[in-house]
Amino acid sequence: MKEVDFMSILHKSTERDYLKRVNDQDYPKHKAATLAKKFDYDYWDGDRRICFGGYHYLEGRWEKVANNMASYYSLPDKPKILDIGCGKGYLLYDFLKVVPNAEIYGIDISRYAIDNSKPEIKDRLFVGNAVDLPYEDNFFDLVISINTLHCLESYDLNNALREMERVGKHQKYLCVESYRNEIEKANLLYWQVTCEAFNTPKEWLWWFAMTGYSGDYSFIYFE
């Protein structure tokens, strides 16, 4: 288990006005969060003040992340790769550019995301829940979960981490939101719309130890 940074290249490319978001007149924080937590149209393609404001495929954006992962992990010739919380499948689609022989699987709780996913891989993406993965033990050569598990309540977080550990062989990676000080904690509270598990890095490491999660990880901070 190591802390490995694959995500700051994307996270730090976005500018954020925390106070503007939390004080918006049309979509104050409680309204934005209520809409976002349905993980439907408003979350993905609705107003930017709610969440993504149109989550469209951008050529090469996720390819950088996929390339870094493929270079870091020792994958077999035809690796089985699972993305838990795959959304519209953009990372998996770009993974096939880097590892063309990969057998990809994606699972997401959002029916809207799957219905509006990348057409080329839509048949590899499924609606499902991280707490109960429909796969055999040690089935995947690489299991990924990016910006998903912090959306779970504690009782579901426990099960989801155990499931991620169960279906993966040795190589796993997750990224979650966290905070190291009161400024980052306030910024996280202001910016997030779906986070339920507000944990410091030390608390996340406690969760990993308690659930037996042995994979790699990284944290997103709102500095």
* Percentage of β-strand residues: 15-25%
* Radius of gyration computed on alpha carbons: 17 Å
What spatial form do the alpha-carbon principal axes imply?
globular
Helix and strand element order: HHHHHEHEHEEHEHHE
What's the helical proportion of residues?
25-40%
Q: Could you tell me how far the N terminus lies from the C terminus, measured between alpha carbons in angstroms?
A: 25 Å
Count of alpha and pi helical runs: 10
Q: Which residue ranges are poorly predicted, with pLDDT under 50 across at least 5 consecutive positions?
A: none
Number of domains: 1
Q: What do we call the CATH homologous superfamily?
A: Vaccinia Virus protein VP39
Structural class: alpha/beta
Overall mean pLDDT stands at 95
The top-level CATH class is Alpha Beta
Q: Could you give the count of β-strands?
A: 6
Major beta sheet, strand line-up: 3-2-1-4-5-6
CATH topology: Rossmann fold
| CATH architecture designation | 3-Layer(aba) Sandwich
Q: Mind explaining what this structure looks like?
A:
- The chain is of the alpha/beta class and 223 residues long.
- It has one domain (8-220): Rossmann fold, CATH 3.40.50.
- The chain contains ten helices and six strands; from the N terminus they run αααααβαβαββαβααβ.
- The protein has helices at residues 8-11, 18-22, 29-36, 41-45, 63-72, 90-98, 111-115, 154-167, 182-191, 201-211; strands at 80-84, 103-108, 125-127, 140-146, 168-177, 216-220.
- It has a six-stranded parallel beta sheet.
- The longest helix is centred in the last third of the chain and has 14 residues, at 154-167.
- The model has no long low-confidence stretch (mean pLDDT 95).
